[in-house]
Structures are given as structure tokens and as C-alpha cells.
Write a structure and sequence with these properties.
Strand content of chain A: 15-25%
Shape of chain B: globular
Number of strands of chain A: 14
Distance between the termini of chain A: 44 Å
Strand order of the largest sheet of chain A: 3-2-4-5-7-6-12
Helix content of chain B: 40-55%
Number of strands of chain B: 8
Number of helices of chain A: 11
Structural class of chain A: alpha/beta
Largest sheet of chain B: 6 strands, parallel
Structural class of chain B: alpha/beta
Shape of chain A: globular
Distance between the termini of chain B: 38 Å
Radius of gyration of chain B: 20 Å
Largest interface: A-B, 44 and 50 residues
Order of helices and strands of chain A: EHEHEHEHEHEHEEEEHEEHEHEHH
Largest sheet of chain A: 7 strands, mixed
Helix content of chain A: 25-40%
Oligomer: heterodimer
Number of helices of chain B: 12
């Protein structure tokens, strides 16, 4: 098995899908000649030609709306938003058109929108956001947030196969920061199955995306203090693995929900509410949420560090939780 | 590239050259009558309290819708809007399903999940509109993109109104379609009123079609009450797109002869405007043309009129027999399953 970075795994996965299925094509800004702002599609145009790797004008509305139309005609578009933040310009086409079309008209919209998201590199308010919970609130959309190279590849294959609109959040800070073994052959990973990133019985951290790695570091530190903290990676938010989360809660009785997105109305609130509804009597402590504060993503490094949950924040919250 | 103002079609000879025989002409007349008949009966149903929500019609736009749809090929696709009932009629949507849609019944194309003209049958090459206008233009553009990628000889028709022309979706769609020379026809139903907003507050140029030049393709203005002229211009544009000639913006000028929806008495539209435009009612106009140029007889007309009446009576009866949706099914069908992709239009 080859070791691949997170971005290589996405690139490899996408290339494999395009080789396998002639209906798959990519469209977006600078995805062709330039290979994408982050180079996910570098070399794709040479291999697949300019009509399967389509450089569009700066037009998020036309990219996502166009993907919807092409999907209705039997193709399998993979649209790239240059940054997840720019998906706001395509909101209508995801929320108004794609999400509701099957419910209304029984016409499936099999599209994937790739969303390079997340902060940690002074991208500022418009190149760092994690807008997944805004879309998780919209019935009809599926939300994928891989945390590892192997998951990124397998979940992308599943997303392209899925007959529904899928938002594929790729955390930019993971692109070149993590590397792991990724199977060379094609494989899929079912949506809605959480993954145990690290086992433990004293408490559980429920999280996704880049925060999986933050949680793992925090758990590692607490291991030095004699605590075994489970890190549960949800992998997909819609659908999310309620049963697996509840199993962990019942077993550990202490739960911390962690996300990089801001706190109020974040998907962590949904998880906490579900735990309170369905596993209240198994809890030995109040559910703890660690999330970004309710501000835009700031630019300057000390501000951004204060915004994004850090390992120390999680360690401290876990210590309090474990001591409760 | 200046906008072209289309001439009316006057003789039967010209019509034949445009590809229509006498039988086609009678078919067009019948489709115009069905279109108006559906909406007139819908209005009655609404007044009887049988239609929940609101009710929209395309009175005054029948010729524009029927003319364009008649020019489409069997494998072409479109995204008609709330003034384009004629498109559904021409493509073969059974009227009973439209009444069932109005009344929120299972038999409507959206099975009660959506209402009024928010419906279309994909098996007929039509795709369901949303309220956000003109959000279906980028979708139609994507359909044309798919045809271009695959090398299909198919054309997409995207409808919008002069009001919706103000929104960014219009620009992004036309720009992308122009850059990529996609096989698409943008049809503007310019009925002069965006709810209560007149044209001079919606756009600052003479014609919406003037904008086509900015996207590198042809703009054509046609009298939207002249079904034959609309047909000829739509046919030209569609066949040009099919042959690789890129998009056309076809602006059909009409007057919205009723309010925005049933609740709106359109007090803001000057009475003289209604009077002037009612003199060239699209259906009356075509009927007179048929008598003058195509030797329509009273017997033929009676036959068509009574046939339409029968069709709509039966349709109403059948729609009322269609059950209301079962609330227990509400949560079904939010997400598609893989087998839902087996529909023919997805191949």
C-alpha cells in the first residue's frame, strides 16, 4: 500500500472514478490548465481532455446549477468550489434546486460538490470557514467530512456513486499535513458509519474533519495521565451514525462534542440534543461542547489560534469532564 | 451584433416553408385552446375552493409557450415556468394530471409535494421549475453542457421572464453558454410586468434581447402573440443550436393579461394597455389567421372546440378521483436510491 497525503488520496480517488466511469467529469474555476487552486486536478486535463475537466468562468451559480442540469441528463458531475466559503454564491442551487428536486419531481440529482474548507493558515474570514452545519439543516443534501487519506478516497467514490447531491468537505489544513497508507484499488466507504480513530472507555470525543487529529493529540496527552479517551470520527454528518455515538455514550458515560465550526447552531448541538434525548440516563456528566466562538474567522495568527479549538482547549475540557 | 426584430408570418406558403402543414396548424390551434382551457378551469376550481394555496396563469402567453414547444425536437429538453402551460400541453402532459397537481392530489406530477405550475414530466423532456426565478437557467445551461460533452444532437430550452432577467443567474448562464457555445435557447417571456414592476424599472435598455450581444450570440425579438412567428424563430434558434451554432436569446413580447397570481387584480397596469393588447389576443389572432389563410371551416372549428371541451371535462373528473397524498408517506423520497437513477432520462 502506498503512503499518500490527504490531497493525493482525493486526487487519486477522483482520477480513478474518472477512468472507471466516462460519465464523471469535473468543472470549476481553474481546475483545468492550472490543476485547481490546491492542485487536486493537476494533470487531469491532459489525461481526460478539456470537455471532462472544464474551466468555467468565475460563476459558482452556473457551476452548481450547471452540474445539476448535467446530472439530470445522465452525467456525474464533480464540481469544485475553489474555497468552501464561495459556496454561498451557489446556495440557491444546492438548497433550492438540487436538494428538493427528487422530493418534488422524483428526478435524482447525482452531483458532488467538493469544498476545500477549514482554517489554520491565516486564510481570513473568506477562505477558512466550515459551513457544513448550514447545509446539514437542509433536507435532501448529504454531508461528508473525511479526516484521513484512506477515508477521503473511499468516501469520494461513494459520493460520486450516490444518487443525491453530496457536499464533500475537504479540510485544507489536512491536505499536505497528514499522510497514511491508502489502498491502490478502488473501494467505497458507506455513508453513516462512524470510525473509531482511537479506542478508550473513560470518555468519548465525537468529532469530524481536522478536529479528529486535534482530539487524538489531546487523547494522547491524557493517556499520559492514565485516561483512555475514545476519539470517534463521524466521517459523514448527513447521514450521521447516531447508534454508534449512543453506544459510545452508554459505554463511557462522558461525552465531548468537538468541531471547528462556530458553536451556536453548529452540528455539535444536534449531536448533543440527540444524546440528551436518547441516552440521558447514561450520562455521568453534562455534555461538553468545544467549538469555535461565534465570530467570523479572524486573520491574524494569535486571533486565529484563539478561534480554532486547540489541543490544549480539548485537553482542558476533557480534564474537567473526566474529573466531574 | 444588433438585435433582430422578427417579421410576422403571413402566408400559408411561408408557414409551409417553416415546416408546418395544415394538420400541424390545427394541432397548434387545439393546443392553444387546451392551454387556455386548463387555466380557465383551474381558475374556477380555485374559486370553488378546490385549489389550496395560490393560482397562476399564463393568459396572454399561450402563443409564446405553444410556439416554442412546437419547435422543439422529441429529444430536446426544457425548463418551462409558470406562464408556460402551453409547453406542458404540447409535450403531451395529460390535462388530468395538471388538474390533479393544482388540487394537491397523488396523480399530479409532484404527487402533492409541490403545487400549481411547479411541475414537469422528465419523460417528456421537461424539468420542474422552482419559485426562485430564473434558477432554472443555470440548470438548462448544464443540460446543454451535457449535450456538448457527449456530442448529443440535442438542445436545451431555458425560460425566464423579463423580471428574472435582472438576477445574476441569467448572466452566469448566458455567459457560460456563450463562452462554451452551448446548444441552448434562452426564451424570455417578456410580459412587461414583474409582479407590479414595469419594464423600465426592471431593465434600462430597449429589449432584453439586446443583452445577447454581450454574450456573443444572437438576440431576437418576436411578437409573442403571433404563434407562427414565435414558432419560426424558435425553430431557427433550436436548429442553429443543434448544428453547433451556439445559443440564441429569443424574447417573446406579450402582456400579462391577468394579475401576477389570482389574488392580484393588477390595478397598477394601465387599462388602455389591457385594451390595446386584448385586440391581439393570441388565440383570437391565430383563429382569424386560420380562417383567412388556411381555409378553416366552422365545422372543423366546432370539432376542435368540442374535442377540447370533452378532454377537459374528462380530465377534471379523473383528477377529482385522484386521491390526496397519504400523510404517512411524507418522509419518503427525500433522498433518491440507486434504482431511481434507472429512469430513461438519466441514461
Amino acid at each position: 500500500m502506498a503512503e499518500l497525503t490527504y490531497i493525493q488520496a482525493i486526487s487519486e480517488g477522483l482520477r480513478q472514478e474518472m477512468r472507471r466511469d466516462p460519465r464523471v467529469f469535473v468543472l470549476g474555476e481553474d481546475v483545468g490548465v492550472y490543476g485547481g487552486a490546491f492542485k487536486v486536478t493537476l494533470g487531469f486535463q491532459e489525461e481526460f481532455g478539456p470537455w471532462r475537466v472544464i474551466d468555467t468562468p468565475l460563476s459558482e451559480t452556473a457551476i452548481v446549477g450547471g452540474a445539476t442540469g448535467a446530472a439530470l441528463m445522465g452525467l456525474r458531475p464533480v464540481a469544485e468550489m475553489q474555497f468552501a466559503d464561495f459556496v454561498s454564491c451557489a446556495w440557491d442551487h444546492l438548497v433550492t434546486v438540487a436538494a428538493k428536486q427528487f422530493f418534488r419531481a422524483r428526478t435524482p440529482i447525482p452531483i458532488v460538490v467538493r469544498l476545500p474548507s477549514g482554517g489554520g493558515f491565516s486564510g481570513g474570514p473568506f477562505h477558512s470557514q466550515n459551513p457544513e452545519s448550514s447545509f446539514a439543516h437542509i433536507p435532501g443534501l448529504k454531508i461528508v467530512c473525511p479526516a484521513t487519506p484512506a477515508d477521503a478516497k473511499g468516501l469520494l467514490a461513494t459520493a460520486i456513486e450516490d444518487p443525491n447531491p453530496v457536499l464533500f468537505f475537504e479540510h485544507k489544513h489536512l491536505y499536505r499535513r497528514i499522510k497514511a497508507e491508502v489502498p491502490e484499488e478502488r473501494y467505497t466507504i458507506p455513508f453513516g458509519q462512524a470510525r473509531t480513530h482511537r479506542p478508550g472507555d473513560d470518555a468519548v470525543v465525537v468529532t469530524w474533519g481536522a478536529m479528529v487529529h486535534t482530539a487524538a493529540e489531546a487523547a494522547e496527552r491524557l493517556a499520559g495521565e492514565g485516561y483512555e479517551v475514545e476519539v470517534l470520527d463521524l466521517r459523514t454528518l448527513i447521514p450521521w451514525d447516531e447508534e454508534r455515538v449512543l453506544e459510545s455514550v452508554r459505554r463511557t458515560s462522558k461525552v465531548l462534542v468537538l468541531h471547528e465550526d462556530t458553536r451556536t447552531g453548529g452540528f455539535g448541538a444536534e449531536i448533543a440534543a440527540t444524546i440528551a434525548e436518547r441516552a440521558f440516563e447514561h450520562l455521568d456528566a453534562p455534555i461538553v461542547r468545544v467549538a469555535a466562538p461565534d465570530t467570523p474567522v479572524p486573520f491574524s495568527p494569535p486571533l486565529e489560534k484563539a478561534f480554532i479549538p486547540q489541543v490544549e482547549d480539548v485537553v482542558q475540557a476533557l480534564q474537567e469532564l473526566l474529573a466531574y | 451584433m444588433a438585435v433582430r426584430e422578427a417579421e410576422p408570418l403571413s402566408s400559408l406558403q411561408e408557414v409551409r416553408e417553416a415546416g408546418l402543414d395544415r394538420e400541424d396548424l390545427l394541432g397548434i390551434y387545439r393546443n392553444l385552446l387546451i392551454t387556455r382551457g386548463i387555466e380557465e378551469r383551474g381558475h374556477i376550481l380555485y374559486k370553488q375552493g378546490k385549489i389550496p394555496g395560490s393560482f397562476y396563469t399564463g393568459r396572454g402567453n399561450e402563443a409564446a409557450a405553444v410556439g416554442v414547444a412546437t419547435a422543439m425536437g422529441p429529444n430536446d429538453v426544457g425548463t418551462p415556468l409558470h406562464r408556460d402551460m402551453g409547453v406542458h400541453v404540447v409535450r403531451g402532459t395529460e390535462p388530468w394530471r395538471i388538474f390533479a397537481q393544482y388540487m394537491g392530489r397523488e396523480g399530479g406530477p409532484t404527487r402533492g409535494r409541490d403545487g400549481n405550475v411547479h411541475m414537469a414530466l422528465a419523460e417528456l423532456g421537461l424539468y420542474t421549475m422552482v419559485s426562485h426565478l430564473p434558477a432554472m437557467l443555470p440548470v438548462a445551461t448544464g443540460m446543454a453542457l451535457a449535450f456538448k460533452i457527449r456530442g448529443d444532437h440535442r438542445v436545451a430550452v431555458g425560460w425566464f421572464g423579463e423580471g428574472a432577467a435582472a438576477r445574476g443567474d441569467t448572466h452566469e448562464s448566458m455567459n457560460l453558454a456563450g463562452v462554451r457555445r452551448l446548444p441552448i435557447v434562452f426564451v424570455c417571456d417578456n410580459n412587461q410586468w414583474a409582479y407590479s414592476t414595469p419594464t423600465y424599472l426592471s431593465y434600462p435598455v430597449e429589449h432584453i434581447a439586446d443583452r445577447a450581444a454581450a454574450y456573443g450570440f444572437e438576440g431576437v425579438v418576436v411578437d409573442g402573440t403571433d404563434v407562427l412567428a414565435v414558432y419560426r424563430e424558435a425553430k431557427r434558434a433550436i436548429e442553429k443550436a443543434r448544428a453547433g451554432g451556439g445559443p440564441t436569446l429569443l424574447e417573446c413580447v406579450t402582456l400579462r393579461m391577468e394579475g401576477h397570481a389570482v389574488h392580484d387584480d393588477a390595478f397598477y397596469v394601465p387599462k388602455e394597455l389591457f385594451e390595446r393588447w386584448s385586440e391581439h389576443d393570441p388565440i383570437e389572432r391565430f383563429r382569424a389567421w386560420l380562417y383567412e389563410h388556411a381555409a378553416l371551416t366552422e365545422t372543423e372549428e366546432d370539432e376542435i372546440v368540442s374535442g377540447v371541451k370533452r378532454l377537459l371535462n374528462d380530465a377534471l373528473e379523473r383528477a377529482e378521483e385522484s386521491p390526496l397524498p397519504d400523510p404517512a408517506t411524507l418522509e419518503e423520497g427525500v433522498f433518491a436510491s440507486p434504482e431511481d437513477l434507472d429512469a430513461p432520462h438519466h441514461k
